[in-house]
């Protein structure tokens, strides 16, 4: 059974402010959770009890798996630095960026 404090924490992750405050985000569904784990994201907790998931899910029809993951701080910093530099030199131009 999930605690009231854990429910409150997970529900707070619905907003950007809540996610940034604690450095966590929610992923719902077995495929999404599995993909994130394979990509190296660190799971803080994984819920599989459907009754617990129903209490915290952001979806109308909850998935059978819900994961709470840590945000990748270093990757975000590198990406944001790159985008800032990119925006500084490319002004008002249409750009297509592909990731291979």
Question: What's the quick description here?
Answer:
The chain has 100 residues and is an alpha+beta fold. It is built from five helices and three strands; from the N terminus they run H-H-E-H-E-H-E-H.
- Name the CATH class of the domain at 4-71: Alpha Beta
> What is Rg?
17 Å
Strand order of the largest sheet: 1-3-2
Number of helices: 5
Mean pLDDT: 83
* Intertermini distance: 43 Å
The major β-sheet equals: 3 strands, antiparallel
CATH topology of the domain at 4-71: 60s Ribosomal Protein L30, Chain: A
The sequence of SSEs as H and E is: HHEHEHEH
Query: What would you give as the CATH superfamily of the domain at 4-71?
Result: Ribosomal protein L30/S12
Q: Percentage of helical residues?
A: 40-55%
- Percent strand equals 15-25%
* Unreliable runs: none
Question: What's the structural blueprint in terms of helices and strands?
Answer:
Layout: H1 4-12, H2 16-22, E1 24-28, H3 30-38, E2 43-47, H4 50-56, E3 66-70, H5 73-89
Antiparallel strand pairs: 1-3, 2-3
Explained architecture:
The protein has 100 residues and is α+β, with helices and mostly antiparallel strands. The protein has a domain at 4-71: Ribosomal protein L30/S12 (60s Ribosomal Protein L30, Chain: A), CATH 3.30.1330.30. Helix content is 49%, strand content 15%. It has a 3-stranded antiparallel β-sheet. The model has no long low-confidence stretch (mean pLDDT 83).
């Amino acid at each position: 059974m999930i605690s009231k404090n854990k429910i409150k924490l997970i529900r707070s992750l619905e907003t950007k402010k809540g996610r940034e405050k604690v450095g966590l985000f929610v992923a719902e569904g077995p495929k999404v959770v599995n993909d994130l784990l394979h990509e190296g994201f660190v799971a803080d907790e994984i819920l599989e009890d459907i009754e617990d998931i129903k209490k915290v899910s952001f979806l109308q029809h909850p998935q059978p798996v819900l994961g709470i993951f840590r945000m990748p701080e270093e990757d975000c910093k590198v990406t944001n630095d790159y985008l800032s530099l990119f925006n500084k030199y490319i002004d008002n131009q249409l750009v297509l960026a592909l990731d291979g």
